[in-house]
Automatic annotation (TrEMBL):
GO molecular function, one term: RNA binding
Domain of life: Bacteria
Keywords, comma-separated and alphabetical: RNA-binding
Keyword Metal-binding attributed: no
InterPro entries in alphabetical order: S4_RNA-bd, S4_RNA-bd_sf
Location of region: Disordered: 88-112
Protein name: RNA-binding S4 domain-containing protein
Every RNA-binding S4 domain range: 11-75
Length: 112
């Protein structure tokens, strides 16, 4: 049985990053995965062939930013940017590496 269980098809994570235009080339996607900083559903991805499925949440460091995305569906090709973006939803940004997060002052729950 695949790691996706009853959720259906899967796609290699390196190929997915390339198809979603999160990496310029497949080899660049493999470098991102090989760095060991990507997480799938909170678990570190340790191999290029790690399958990902629709509904998975990926945490991806890109440059100095960290992106958290949920896969709505799996792409069938590497299309234009708008098509690629239609396959995932941004859950939020983890911010920039080395950045400290401070609460908004206009949020009444965060006031001292």
């Amino acid at each position: 049985m695949s790691e996706c269980g009853d959720r259906g098809e899967s796609l290699r994570i390196d190929r997915l990053l390339w198809m979603l235009r999160l990496a310029k080339s497949r080899s660049a996607a493999q470098e991102i995965v090989g760095s060991g900083h990507i997480r799938r559903n909170g678990i570190r991805v340790t191999r290029m062939s790690q399958p990902v499925c629709a509904g998975d949440v990926l945490t991806v460091p890109l440059g100095r930013a960290i992106r958290v995305i949920e896969l709505a569906s799996l792409p069938t090709r590497r299309g234009p940017a708008l098509e690629a973006q239609s396959h995932y939803r941004e859950l939020g940004s983890g911010g920039h590496i080395g950045e400290t997060v401070t609460p908004a002052l206009d949020d009444p729950d965060m006031r001292p």
